[in-house]
Write a structure and sequence with these properties.
Length: 199
Amino acid sequence: MNSKIVIFPLSKTVVMTSLTTERLILRSWRDSDSKPFFEQINADSDVMEYFPSTLSREESDALATELQRRIDVNGWGLWAVEEKSSGQFIGFVGLNSPLIELPFTPYVEVGWRLSKAFWGKGYATEAATKALEIAFAELELDEVVSFTAVPNLRSQAVMTRLGLRDTGENFNHPAVPSESPLYEHVLFKITRDEWAKSL
Ligand SMILES: CC(C)(COP(=O)(O)OP(=O)(O)OC[C@H]1O[C@@H](n2cnc3c(N)ncnc32)[C@H](O)[C@@H]1OP(=O)(O)O)[C@@H](O)C(=O)NCCC(=O)NCCS
């Protein structure tokens, strides 16, 4: 892998450590999230179908720590998501400025990963709608992207529901082995104007 660290140049910073939607809370990560994050998400081969591999407990814990570190540094990020009605941790949704250089760097992406028990309820779209509101109304970004492996149609359906459009600018992900069916990625985008018109 040939990647270098890229810092997204934001002109505005805000602190967003807890957000609510109709059915969800997007919040900082807690120690109690570690077990379900590993068992129900990162160790689940269905959830991780479009990633190169599932994660070990150590990798899963390290990812949660890193996601919280980015929220601490930026004031926004890939928040832990909690279902209001049950208080259960269900995964993460939010904004991310990855540390890996891609053909369209610099960028902020909107992303998601939910426990399978919580798919099919509109939760990813609901939480990501709030994340886009933060991206455009608070951070005043010009554009937000989202990308995933070509076969990950479920994720692409979320992008489309959110109003992102397929740019047709597919690219090969440098962190994925070139022989993998997950090597080629689609790139979706939404601009601030497009977002404002969709309200
Ligand atoms: C990608 C992922 C978040 C999509 O989850 P999802 O639940 O399908 O997406 P949404 O939250 O938009 O939910 C939409 C579904 O909920 C249904 N739904 C049920 N009640 C709903 C409600 N009240 N409001 C909206 N939709 C509702 C919709 O009809 C739709 O169902 P369908 O898939 O049968 O068409 C999930 O599959 C996932 O976590 N995958 C693994 C991680 C991953 O691939 N991440 C992306 C990597 S880049």
